[in-house]
Amino acid sequence: MKKIGVMTSGGDAPGMNAAIRAIVRACTYYNIECVGIYRGYQGLIEGDFVNLNARSVSNIINRGGTILKSARSKEFMTKEGRAKAYENLKRAEIDGIVLIGGDGTFTGGMIFNEEYNFPCIGVPGTIDNDIFGTNYTIGYDTALNTVVQAIDKIRDTASSHNRLFFVEVMGRDAGFIALNAGVGAGAEEILIPEENMGLDRLLESLKRTKRSGKSSSIVVIAEGDKIGKNVFELANYVEENLKQYEVRVSVLGHMQRGGSPSCFDRVLASRLGVKAVELLLDGKSNVMVGLVNNKVETTELELAVKGHHAINKELIRVSDMMSI
Ligand code: F6P
């Protein structure tokens, strides 16, 4: 292993730069070259590469986004696209790659590895925290803090106007952000894809909340929630059925993916980045590095993609009790 490639792919996440920095500097430490691949798999197909050294990654540990840019490449899903990617890697004499991203990124890596037996190591970077084989993904902690700060602000205005707010947070398939930020911000109800609360129970719960004398209510809803209505339809439905409420909607959107990474995400990214390089140097491939019980562990990429990272149901109970 003389030259390692690194890319960020899929939705960006705060802390991806800290991971790039760790990978580049670990390469320097072990006396090997490091090449940055721009725009994920799309840059791999187009041969959009840059040589990186320890100084190229100065002052990025604190920056959100990714200096290597990110993309979701349709072309890499085709055999022809992957063949071009392989040719570019050979031409640049890259011996292995570190893929920073989520399940889509790892699925691409697995297929590529199967076809070309090319060494790939995954580093989990997504705000969703929906990856099996790690307690935390890079970016999740920062996103949680961003969401809690936003909801705190919404609470100020909700309480001044005695309003009910529906706050939609990211999480297509997973409720980690909704559940944890919901508890952290003291939400009255939390709607997540993993649990279908049902409309009737939601109405009952909101009636109880009003009766308890609260001046404001916050319902946090994950974008992938399965209640059967989008957040605006849900708000209308509640307003029509519970006349005692004046309802507003706030969709937090992509601001959740931005911002300077938290200390936790920087440290996590540094630990996982170093381990990813060491695994390639040890001749390992097709695995993801993750943090399990505060130890850096590896999981087969296939398991990381297919396994289910379950939410902590204790938090649902705690939330129910706290929103009394
Ligand atoms: O996977 C990360 C994520 O932020 C999801 O929570 C969200 O559903 C999706 O990406 C949004 O993707 P895009 O940036 O393509 O709109």
Q: Which structural class do you get from the secondary structure elements?
A: alpha/beta
Helix segment tally: 11
> Which of globular, elongated, flat, extended, rod-shaped describes the shape?
elongated
What is the terminal-to-terminal distance?
58 Å
Radius of gyration: 22 Å
Reported CATH architecture of the largest domain: 3-Layer(aba) Sandwich
CATH class of the largest domain: Alpha Beta
Share of residues in strands: 15-25%
At CATH level 3, the topology of the largest domain is Rossmann fold
Hetero groups: 6-O-phosphono-beta-D-fructofuranose
| Largest sheet entry | 7 strands, mixed
Describe this structure in words.
It is a single chain. The mean pLDDT is 97. Helix 2 (40-46) packs across helix 3. The protein starts with a strand and ends with a helix. It has helices at 16-29, 40-46, 79-91, 103-116, 140-160, 176-184, 199-211, 231-241, 263-281, 301-306, 314-322, and strands spanning 3-8, 33-37, 49-52, 96-101, 120-124, 164-169, 189-191, 217-222, 247-251, 287-292, 295-300. The chain folds into 2 domains: 3-139 and 261-306, Rossmann fold (3-Layer(aba) Sandwich); 140-257, Rossmann fold (3-Layer(aba) Sandwich). With 324 residues, it is α/β, with parallel strands linked by helices. The strands form 2 sheets. A 7-stranded mixed β-sheet has the order 3-2-1-4-5-10-11, sandwiched between helices. The chain has a 4-stranded parallel β-sheet with strand order 7-8-6-9, sandwiched between helices. 6-O-phosphono-beta-D-fructofuranose binds at residues 11, 102, 126-128, 170-172, 223, 257. Residues 11, 102, 126-128, 170-172, 223, 257 line the site of 6-O-phosphono-beta-D-fructofuranose.
